[in-house]
């Protein structure tokens, strides 16, 4: 049998099959970017994502140092490892960017998100909504005879789980802040 005649079910591999099987897997990454707090910087950072077709899952921005006029942008994005590396490199090239950190790969980190949920319902659905809110440690911040507004902080997964449970009970509206994240330790 010649080398070109390979039997069906043979374990022979092509050179193209030798690449990393996980290379094309999309992963979520939490990036923190410290930038100058000046007009147009956020637009430049966001423009980098939109101009290259990268998606932003979550975005939060706030000034972190009034004296030095710096802000922190926390971005949750998804992509292959190569795309994430490209995003970090391109962010680092923007002039008002001071630092770029990928918390997902740099070690343990804390993330929290704030969400408000408006749930409308009466009788048993109201009681069940209050019971679930207690389990999830959500606070009632507004109440009428027909609805509640719950406030909750936690990981995105916890907030998603709470929303999923509230939908059949009358979830009317949701507002989310996006992820705020910080590395653990010194």
Automatic annotation (TrEMBL):
Residues 30-105 form the ACT domain. It holds the Pfam family ALS_ss_C. Signal peptide: none annotated. One of its GO terms (biological process) is isoleucine biosynthetic process. Its EC number is 2.2.1.6. It comes from the Bacteria. GO terms for molecular function: acetolactate synthase activity; acetolactate synthase regulator activity. Pathway: Amino-acid biosynthesis; L-isoleucine biosynthesis; L-isoleucine from 2-oxobutanoate: step 1/4; Amino-acid biosynthesis; L-valine biosynthesis; L-valine from pyruvate: step 1/4. It catalyses: 2 pyruvate + H(+) = (2S)-2-acetolactate + CO2. NCBIfam families: acolac_sm, PRK11895.1. Belongs to the acetolactate synthase small subunit family. Dimer of large and small chains. This is Acetolactate synthase small subunit. The lineage of its organism: Bacteria, Pseudomonadati, Pseudomonadota, Alphaproteobacteria, Rhodobacterales.
